[in-house]
Amino acid sequence: MMISFPGLSKLKTKPVVYQDVLLASDPGTLEQLKELSSKRKAIEVSINESSSVTEAIAREMSGGLTSRCEQDIQKLERYLPLLENLVHHVNLNRKNGRIIFWISGLNVRWSSVLTPSSIFHLQGPKFYQVNDLYFELGMTLFLYGALLCEQALEVVASDLVQSATLFRKAAGLYNYLAQEVLISLPSDQLRPPEATPSVSSIMSFICLADAQLRLLNDFALNFNDRFILGCKTLHELVSYKYLAESLKNDGKIGIAVGILRLALANARKNVPKEESWTSVYKHAIDELTGLLRKYEHENEFVWREKVPWNDELPCPEGWTVLGGESFRIKLSSLFSTRLLCVLSWKIHNFDGVKEGLDWFDLLYEKVSALVSEEKIVESSDSGTDIFKLTYLEGNSWLWEVGGVRILVDPILVGNLDFGIPWLYDAAKKFLKNFKLDDLPEIDCLLITQSLDDHCHLNTLKPLSRRLPNLRVITTPNAKALLDPLFSNVTYLEPGQGSEIQLSNGSSVKIQATAGPVLGPPWQRPENGYLVTSPEGQLRLYYEPHCVYNENFLEKKQADIVITPVIKQLLPNFSLVSGQEDAVRLSKLLEAKYVYRSMKNGDLDSKGLLSSLIESQGTIESFKEILLKELPEAKVLEPTPGVPLEISAPANSS
């Protein structure tokens, strides 16, 4: 099995002569700049394939290296320390106008191998120019990582351990590239995919998986066919579990029951005989059996859906959208990562079944989340006008707006129980292990309502101890709860607004709107919010109950509307609106994307209140109504933990 994407080292670059642009103050500095240019020249000639040096001379110049890939790696390892030293010294004087002018004069230009025109060879290489030394450093490091992967593939037939070591080195390099280098690039300049942190993060995990695969290929040579068959069956068992849960959440419980029955039937035919695997396998089968009983009971007494025959059941598969081109990816490829982790669990000899399963679940979630990241609109010049939306289950979200990270209604510590768990107690289904420690650096906390399912004190208390000065924007109804915790709180009445300033002088604008009244009629309404991107080209509207003031919103517009679309009802009382109300809201705001928020069933809940809540409508019925009223709008469904990126179109004004 091959995970790596070949051909990533086929980058091209234009010449850079440092001493012609950067003025040296002394002879020593001039010599250093000349050496830097010389080392880069060697790389330029090699990757642009413009060298007239024979193979024999190239071998002698490299000290006897016969592989073209190894020779290029050697050249990069001679150039990179000098380049990083220059970047360091330029950073010390980054605000100096002359330095900025000189760097722009270098005309650093690189091509891409990841754009559609490059992949399909539609035309010659397009060169991207970014006037920043971090662009030169980032593209050079990306090339270095790609060459390490190629070298790993060259030696795989003769030395699996060395191949794995090279892949691990590449993984560390791409992680450094994503976390330390590319985040320093200006966001307002067009750059190739290779110069984006998300691509480097994906490459890091792919290289880790490839490294693991190399070791496991070596390890698996000593295993008999029966053991490998058991691994395969376990991996399929877990794959079908995730598929069944996804179908159940989409209201297709009959198909989910069929999937679980088929998975268990296959699993019981292929129980591994190895004693060391018995407990792992039994744990997985017991978990699936319990889930099947739960679904069968619910289907029998509530839904009464027909269970399809085996040949009518779907196979596990997934979709990802990259650069505007759709590629169908079998989830078996992603779940193979779980299989690798299962085998690695055997190698690492974890103490218990749960520890091993939790370990490979964690790696699977990270890899699949990165591979599944979706881009809805790709823009070449939208600058900071990008929304990256990550659903954290329940009412919780993490939004990144033009680089500003906004945490919304977080529930990350304990369950949601309103302090009365016998009445209602709900836990997350998928992101069970996602904690406060897993959050990136947060710029703002946004709270919509004052009740526990939005203003969750079990989460906010430890968050305030970590970040007492965190910027908080919220409804005045939560004042009594938040004043003791945070020192930098802005309370917005409906119609009032606030701004989050960016370093470049622009700002993310947040305006409160009227939400539901959760109490007597004279009580102040809770909040919804309109969030506007720094350049004003994208606007998002969010209110978690689909309750809104039409008079206030009639002159507003939002490209993205996050709203519930399935009604949640108690006897004689509507908890959450949806369906026709959500369609009217989307039409009122002229939405381009409708991103459905939490529906009943998204959480594992128990208690008296949980048994009384009913759902009305489905995703499909909402789509039908919306198609009639707003045919251009797209309905998006969140995948917990998977970022969804929406950019302003290139011709926005």
From TrEMBL:
User: Where do the coiled-coil regions begin and end?
Assistant: none
Q: Which SUPFAM superfamilies match?
A: Metallo-hydrolase/oxidoreductase
Report domain BRO1 positions.
1-492
A Pfam family this chain is assigned to: Lactamase_B_3
Q: Which SMART domains match?
A: BRO1
- Specify the protein name: BRO1 domain-containing protein
Gene source species: Sesamum angolense
